[in-house]
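Quarterly update, task 2.4: flavin-adenine dinucleotide-bound model.
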Amino acid sequence: MTSSYWLAAERPRVDVRPLDGRADVAVVGGGVTGCACARVLAASGLRVRLHEARQIASGASGRNGGFALRGGAPAYEAARAQLGRDQARALWQLTERYLDRLAELAGDAFRRTGSLRLAANAGERAELEAEYEALREDGFAAEWRDELPEPLAGRYHGATFHPPDGSLQPARWVRRLAGLAAAAGAELREGQRIESLDELEADQVVIATDGYTHGLVPELDAVVLPTRGQVVVTAPLERRLFPCPHYARHGFDYWQQTPDGRLVAGGFRDKALDEEQTAEETTTPLIQEHLEHLVRELTGAEPRIEHRWAGIFGTTKDRMPLVGPVPGRDGVWVSAGYSGHGNIMGLACGELVAQAILGEPAPEFEFFDPGRAIGSSLNANG
Ligand SMILES: Cc1cc2nc3c(=O)[nH]c(=O)nc-3n(C[C@H](O)[C@H](O)[C@H](O)COP(=O)(O)OP(=O)(O)OC[C@H]3O[C@@H](n4cnc5c(N)ncnc54)[C@H](O)[C@@H]3O)c2cc1C
């Protein structure tokens, strides 16, 4: 069926107290970003109201691959070339701290397993080697693996193991985070789609809609492009084949095995890049066939597919998120555009925006200035 396996898990009860009247901050979007931001703001005593069109975690946060990885969308050596060595190192360190924060907050929704990046061919192996060298040079833990176990042996050309990473049940995690935000005093309003910012009775607004950013702030829609990802989940396998999240072909293929033995596999967006540049949350036969083929290859069997679904994430031109004030719009902030890498970055950036609103911006906040993509000359009604 086309529904997320993660979202099918039982929802915890969250006690929500409505706020009377105007909020200090309205947050639009109830994924990891919005919930992380709302929690920090409410814990600091601000009156926070979060508006979610569907349910908490019903966007990418409850539809993703469940990989909790350090870093950003580009690999480390590419990030060093793009951002400069100091900024790349600071960004990777930030995400390692947020993996620790996740471990503190997520309870049994997070398992610290490490992750394995695989080389699908000699060219990708050279890239992995360059990333491995760059990580080690800058003091990050990484382990090179030439010997790969079945069923990877002979199929992949080496791998890097990333010890700080882990595996998430992302919907359980974000529902839990929403519970923490509500416990801190944030009002969570589910089933309320915001059609215009004018509806919001708040002094400040945070747009936390990632790939679902459509219609509210046109200049954001122009720079955060909706991108579709598709996933399948099998019935529990008899054997435990994969102790941690695995990914190959620059993250175009990824899979992990859940504690009860199911294989979760996603990717193959590169087989139809133009078609997958869409906000339509539907699966397609072409990508699903590729995913089923991967499942057969990895398991040597034909396990039943019990769930299949699509989700939308937001991609930016430089594959770095836009986090900060929206140029030309007083009191409007954004945190979006993680380019498929938002489980940890979303947690980090949701908190970075909250800290900036509280007047205590962290040094890393300036890495993600939305002005680099939107330009500062737009007027307030842009
Ligand atoms: C298939 C897939 C696999 C992925 N795999 C990984 C992975 O393994 N690891 C990783 O780090 N990242 C992964 N990602 C990316 C990651 O899931 C996202 O970057 C992250 O969840 C973004 O969180 P968010 O809270 O910013 O946005 P979302 O979780 O998308 O939340 C945005 C919310 O805003 C709501 N909304 C939108 N418009 C409105 C409106 N007008 N009014 C009210 N509410 C509104 C939506 O309903 C939605 O719930 C994947 C994404 C997909 C789709």
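Highlight for this quarter: The chain has a mean pLDDT of 95.
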